[in-house]
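Can you give me the bound-state structure? Components:
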Amino acid sequence: MAHSDLLTVPFAGAPIFTRSRALRPTGKVLPEHARSHNRALVLQTLYSSGARSRADVSRETGLTRVTISDLVADLIAEGLVVELGQREAARPGKPATLIDVARDAFQIIGLDLSEHEVFRGAVTALDGTIAERIELARGGATGEAAALLVEQLVDRLLALATIPVLGIGVGSPGVVDPLGVVRSAPNLGWVDLPLQARLAARTELPVHVANDANVAILAEHGETAPGELLLIKVGHGVGAGLIVGGRPVIGGGFAAGEIGHVVVGTDGGPRCACGKDGCLEAWVAEPRLTAQLAAVGASRGSSVGAGDGDTDAAAAAARDEILREAGRRLGIVLAPVVGALNLTEVVLSGPADLLDGAFHEATVDTLRQRTMAELNRDLRLRMSEQAEDIVLRGAAVMVLSGQLGVS
Amino acid sequence: MAHSDLLTVPFAGAPIFTRSRALRPTGKVLPEHARSHNRALVLQTLYSSGARSRADVSRETGLTRVTISDLVADLIAEGLVVELGQREAARPGKPATLIDVARDAFQIIGLDLSEHEVFRGAVTALDGTIAERIELARGGATGEAAALLVEQLVDRLLALATIPVLGIGVGSPGVVDPLGVVRSAPNLGWVDLPLQARLAARTELPVHVANDANVAILAEHGETAPGELLLIKVGHGVGAGLIVGGRPVIGGGFAAGEIGHVVVGTDGGPRCACGKDGCLEAWVAEPRLTAQLAAVGASRGSSVGAGDGDTDAAAAAARDEILREAGRRLGIVLAPVVGALNLTEVVLSGPADLLDGAFHEATVDTLRQRTMAELNRDLRLRMSEQAEDIVLRGAAVMVLSGQLGVS
DNA sequence: GTTTGTTCGTAAGGTTTACTAACAAACGTG
DNA sequence: CACGTTTGTTAGTAAACCTTACGAACAAAC
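Here's the bound-state model for the whole set.
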């Protein structure tokens, strides 16, 4: 009973439910809402499975061919789906007319405001492929100046779009509420900035704004789609995005994933900018790591120099030790989260040259040592393969998901 | 747009969503499913608001009076709702006919298998009020013997029920999957025990089985119903129940909340039965605490003795220190979870004489010290008011929720 | 005592939605 | 070339909720 994920089916004596359904029905549901859901289901099916016939979609969704035809007619009329002509394959019966999401009819604009020095933006295809890219040096701008910079970035991206834009997705640092108000972003000096409303008013397009890590996890989730996923985003700060039960976690105060200032361990640690000792961010944020590495002389990137072998080896060992300790600290903080949520997959996103070696290993080892082995046997910790575009691509997914019900 | 919690509404150019909707539509939705949802909505409204007229329900739900009348007619025919006669109040207009959930027409059977020495069970009213109660000494029974004991308990409870039984709810220790198979419960020696199926076949009633802490949190959630809630259940072991985004968290391996064997801090700790040092359970499980308290001579419960004042005061101080340290350890483990999920409410369940003083204070203090103050300002940590019946009452809620869509 | 306005619950009819049944078109196969 | 298969559409039906309308019952005002 797949639909029980979405609707309660509360007959006395009815089959037992999966417990994934809503505990409290929140409002009425009309037949037209069911139709909207089925529309999204069709788009979802086409988007993830590629070009199909109406009959194929019917078989995959369980809806009848008639209903699919009807839904598809609406979608074609709206320009969201296109007919691609007849299927080539040699099969008995009337040849199928292939249909697909109108992948080339819309572009998406994505913004990544999470980096310290630059605001990044891109025009992408529906699948997240980046067509155009702009970086705008922030130059330390904060408050209204930073907001104006964002608007300028959007304007320039819109000018680069060659076809209609489906919507704008923004990954911002800080705490962002569901209405797209940046409640608090210390680095940018934003407090209660109605970014969604500002951009929507300016562009007259659908705009979605969310926390950068929560946006990034959408890019990751689009690929494998497990029910439980945690993404750790290491950059100027440390943030997390969470998907639990297949849904993004927002948090009671809209601050889910703000894990950077949780204290690690019980043995002190470096003094953090927030005043506490041993915050996760004080251990593993990028600036701190690079500074530490520089201090031991193992320069980041290529450590090739004129030094002799011994020095090189010693430097490499010192470098590994620093990264291993940082990875260990991340594992210490994650262990309770992994245990409590019984997570199956954790993804690391950030500079690969820092995270992808000793750091990664230490985090895995620490997680395994500090959680119950039998329960978390199939826990996977991996590096994100999305590199620096993860927020931009996640922003595209956010728009796609929000506007079409597709991911 | 309250319905967007349950159904996607994916028009291009449609209003911005709350992000609480499903990311991936999981299956088709038919009008009849909408009807089921609305049925549950009516029951929910009546259950939580008490006796109302059809017109009242119409106003509260947003459905028309006609539709409510139709749904209520069905529910009355099935015996789930009853008419109570006319409203007394002096108001203009035709007097309303009050209707309510048939609170006296069904009982629920709840089982709590989480205690070490006894299996507890109860016959409750729909609201969780306990009508009859049975405790069965386990006597160290494990495996099939323990399963037979559960069946015996159910039989005896069914015999005590005076009216039809809506269903059976079971809170079991260990890992329980959504189909009610106890995947693993070391204390009871259960591995892949299909408890739900066995009891359902034996009684021909709807049966719901879940982990004890996940059941307990339903009892707590019924009262305040915030979106995010964490319950820590301290007993022979330590377990947690989680509600995130209004939904119970199950976990990728169905082991969400199994936090007892997560290692606390970075300074070692007592050796745990699982072989690791410093597991949460080794710090704060009830047997360990009582043993420690006994060792310093501050006997649990009344510490009144023949000793002089100084000794008493010293013993009390030692006792407080033990509890404070345990509470601190709990706070250390919870801080990352609270931070990552941005939880608003944490509930402690267990022996109040252990948890409700220094322990509680230390946990709160530690949580505040180790998380970001601004984000978790409105975090509340409180003792459960449900005492020992929390699992039994949660089991009733689980049945109510599963069978009627009501909580 | 009558009138007026309000409220309740129901009845009738319409719209939306997805279903079943049936069919024409188009193709491969024997 | 006849036949079976597959596709997509047409036609009709059932379910679910809506709007509109109405009788019944009551309070308040006259």
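A couple of observations. Residues 107-218 of chain B form a domain with the Nucleotidyltransferase; domain 5 fold (CATH 3.30.420.40). The first strand of chain B starts at residue 52 and ends at 53.
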